[in-house]
């Protein structure tokens, strides 16, 4: 419980800092006052229409990615599983790009998250099929590389074929993710899918705890494995699909956060689930603050920062599990 | 070794021959001119003698980019590649400084004369470009006439307004252009101040959405919406732009009048001046 308090306080602080991070040099008090009361100034517009949706999205996406990472690692009992690394995010990005470039997303707003969700489901199914419920790390990672590469290539193909001269440059956004200049439209589009995804994933806690004793023991305790798998697939696809549809692929969050928290909460997947959700929110908020403070006018992509922190950790984890992989 | 010497002397002879024919060609106006750049296309279309220009770039036939679509469509279009341009056997190729340097080099290596034009960075450079193009095509008299007309028409459009509204040029990817560009020069001639100046962006650069909103310009002039979808253009429809009370969003002004330094930019100056007068009337 103390951990929950600390994490919630951390998210609250980072959320506030995110709200006051930006290009303008206005004081914190003025900014927050303009946020709470619409005083007709341009600062109010900036706070309410640009910064608030941005901070909310960072939090929502962090929860989605942290939670998905923890759930997937719990289910596969493999610390290397992460939506970005195994291609689920990449596939969701492909779905989003297809919806946008085909014009579907214009005629029917929900087409964007639905299409991302659909492709994410396909990717999770492919991973589970290729790596199996207890696949070794090596199959899991190889399957992930293949799916990521395919999804990335198809995304690039679709964007290169677009008649829009800016579309090809967008490949970077879809591969690396960014929250720049998002609006409340994106919040409302993603939130319903994310909430459903979070509910599904959090409901897995007890099952994942039982699964630590092995599949047979879990079934003996009354867990239905097929149902669990279905809930996992839908939960991950809904959260990661919605997150990717509005912000592109932000990798490594689901890898770093559970890894950092596992040492504190111990090997209890049910606790790790909500802890990773809060930790993910803190991580993405912090990263989004950093990209704005480090390079204010450069729109540095979130994924760049996450990869710089995440990739060394990933290498470390591979090094640690190399015996199993050999 | 001797073989090498023979080959190299043969090449030297060939080069000398090519040089000679090139100088000979200089004396009389070129007869088969191919343009591979949108802006040189339009300058040449306005100045060339009938039949002198034999091909223009594909972009000049696109109504969204070109102001001379009808004239351009009367000619076969090229894709600006060295191979297809060479096969048209031109005696002069008109290119821009943004044309791929590999293409220009390849054509020059094949012995084709290539004249490279820099894009206009201000209204004042348009007469210079017209004169250069007139000289390249051997149409100096036409160029002088167009320069005179351009100067007269521009002088009529430029006045000294008592109030200069603050305008922001806002394109895809939150890009803006400053006073050191053709668009900035058009804006200035039409009687606007450019807010890019307040942020020290002379040539242009990123104007973050937040900064744009906080600077509260009188008018925001957005770039055109290209076909297809791109996230880069999301900033042009961000709800925050519409939330400002005292800022007018100009109806999307056609980009094609703004792209190239041709006498047609006067249409852009005219449209912007009309916008300023309508702001004054409010």
The residue ranges of chain B in which pLDDT falls below 50 over 5 or more consecutive positions are 1-5
Per CATH, the architecture of the largest domain in chain B is: 3-Layer(aba) Sandwich
For the report, how would you describe the main beta sheet of chain B? 5 strands, parallel
| Largest interface chains and counts | A-B, 34 and 29 residues
Number of helices of chain A: 16
| Residues in β-strands, percent of chain A | under 5%
Give the topology string of chain A: H per helix, E per strand: HHHHHHHHHHHHHHHH
Q: How would you describe the oligomerization state of the chains in this entry?
A: heterodimer
**Helix content bin of chain A:** over 70%
- Spatial gap, N to C terminus of chain B: 83 Å
Helix content of chain B: 40-55%
Number of DSSP strands of chain A?
0
Name of the CATH first level of the largest domain in chain B: Alpha Beta
Architecture of chain A in CATH?
Answer: Orthogonal Bundle
Instruction: Based on Cα principal axes, name the global outline of chain A.
Output: globular
* Overall pLDDT confidence of chain B: 87
The CATH top-level class label of chain A: Mainly Alpha
Here the CATH topology of chain A equals ABC transporter involved in vitamin B12 uptake, BtuC
Number of domains of chain A: 1
* Count of distinct strands of chain B: 11
Label this structure with key terms.
heterodimer, A: 326 residues, ABC transporter involved in vitamin B12 uptake, BtuC, B: 282 residues, alpha/beta, Rossmann fold, 45% helix, disordered N terminus
Textual characterization of the structure:
The complex is a heterodimer of chains A (326) and B (282). Chain A contains 16 helices and no strands. Chain A is mostly helical. In chain A, helix 6 runs antiparallel to helix 7 (137-161) and helix 9 (184-202) runs antiparallel to helix 12 (225-247). Chain B has 282 residues and is an alpha/beta fold. Chain B folds into two domains: 30-153, 3-Layer(aba) Sandwich (Rossmann fold), CATH 3.40.50.1980; 166-281, Nitrogenase molybdenum iron protein domain (Rossmann fold), CATH 3.40.50.1980. In chain B, the strands form three sheets. Chain B has a five-stranded parallel beta sheet with strand order 3-2-1-4-5, sandwiched between helices. A four-stranded parallel beta sheet of chain B has the order 8-6-10-11, covered by helices on one side. In chain B, helix 6 packs antiparallel against helix 7. The longest helix of chain B has 26 residues, at 2-27. Chain A binds chain B through residues 22-24, 40, 42-43, 45-46, 48-51, 100-101, 103, 105-106, 162-167, 169-170, 173, 181, 183-185, 296-299, and chain B through 172-174, 205-206, 208-211, 213-216, 226-235, 238-240, 243-245.
């Amino acid at each position: 419980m103390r951990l929950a308090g600390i994490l919630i306080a951390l998210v609250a602080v980072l959320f506030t800092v995110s709200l006051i991070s930006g290009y303008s040099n206005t004081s914190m008090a003025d900014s927050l006052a303009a946020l709470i009361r619409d005083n007709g100034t341009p600062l109010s517009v900036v706070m309410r229409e640009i910064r608030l949706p941005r901070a909310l999205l960072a939090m929502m996406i962090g929860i989605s990615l942290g939670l998905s990472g923890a759930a997937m690692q719990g289910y596969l009992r493999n610390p290397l599983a992460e939506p970005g690394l195994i291609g689920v995010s990449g596939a969701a990005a492909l779905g989003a790009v297809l919806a946008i470039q085909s014009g579907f997303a214009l005629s029917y707003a929900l087409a964007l998250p639905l299409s991302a969700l659909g492709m994410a489901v396909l990717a999770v199914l492919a991973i589970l099929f290729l790596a199996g419920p207890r696949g070794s790390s090596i199959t899991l990672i190889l399957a992930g590389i293949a799916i990521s590469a395919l999804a990335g290539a198809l995304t690039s193909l679709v964007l290169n074929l677009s008649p829009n001269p800016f579309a090809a440059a967008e490949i970077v956004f879809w591969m690396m993710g960014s929250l720049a200049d998002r609006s409340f439209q994106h919040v409302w589009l993603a939130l319903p899918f994310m909430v459903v995804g979070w509910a599904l994933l959090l409901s897995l806690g007890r099952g994942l705890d039982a699964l630590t004793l092995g599949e047979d023991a879990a079934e003996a305790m009354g867990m239905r494995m097929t149902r669990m798998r279905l809930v996992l697939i839908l939960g991950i696809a809904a959260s990661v699909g919605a997150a990717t549809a509005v912000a592109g692929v932000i990798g490594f969050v689901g890898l770093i956060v559970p890894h950092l928290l596992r040492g504190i909460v111990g090997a209890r997947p049910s606790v790790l689930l909500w802890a990773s959700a809060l930790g993910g929110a803190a991580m993405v908020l912090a990263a989004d603050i950093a990209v704005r403070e480090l390079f204010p006018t450069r729109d540095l992509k979130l994924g760049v920062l996450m990869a710089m922190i995440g990739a060394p950790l990933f290498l470390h984890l591979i090094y640690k599990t190399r015996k199993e992989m050999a | 070794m001797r073989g090498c010497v023979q080959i190299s002397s043969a090449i030297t002879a060939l080069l000398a021959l090519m040089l000679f024919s090139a100088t000979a060609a200089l004396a009389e106006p070129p007869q088969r001119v191919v343009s591979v750049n949108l802006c040189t296309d339009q300058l040449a279309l306005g100045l060339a003698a009938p039949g002198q220009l034999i091909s223009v770039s594909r972009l000049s036939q696109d109504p969204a980019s070109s102001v001379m679509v009808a004239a351009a469509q009367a000619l076969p279009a090229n894709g600006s590649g060295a191979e297809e341009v060479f096969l048209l056997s031109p005696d002069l190729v008109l290119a821009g400084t943004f044309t791929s340097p590999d293409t220009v080099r390849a054509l020059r290596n094949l012995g084709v004369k290539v004249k490279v034009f820099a894009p206009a960075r201000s209204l004042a450079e348009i007469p210079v470009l017209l004169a250069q193009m007139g000289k390249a095509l051997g149409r100096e008299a036409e160029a002088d006439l167009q320069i005179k007309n351009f100067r007269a028409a521009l002088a009529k459009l430029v006045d000294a307004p008592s109030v200069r509204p603050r305008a922001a040029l806002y394109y895809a990817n939150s890009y803006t252009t400053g006073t050191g560009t053709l668009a900035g020069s058009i804006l200035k001639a039409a009687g606007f101040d450019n807010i890019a100046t307040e942020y020290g962006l002379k040539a242009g650069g990123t104007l973050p959405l937040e900064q744009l909103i906080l600077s509260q310009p009188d008018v925001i002039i957005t770039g055109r919406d290209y076909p297809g979808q791109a996230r880069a253009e999301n900033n042009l429809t961000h709800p925050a732009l519409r939330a400002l009370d005292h800022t007018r969003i100009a109806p999307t002004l056609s980009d094609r009048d703004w792209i190239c330094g041709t006498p047609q930019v006067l249409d852009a100056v005219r449209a912007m001046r009309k916008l300023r007068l309508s702001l004054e009337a409010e």
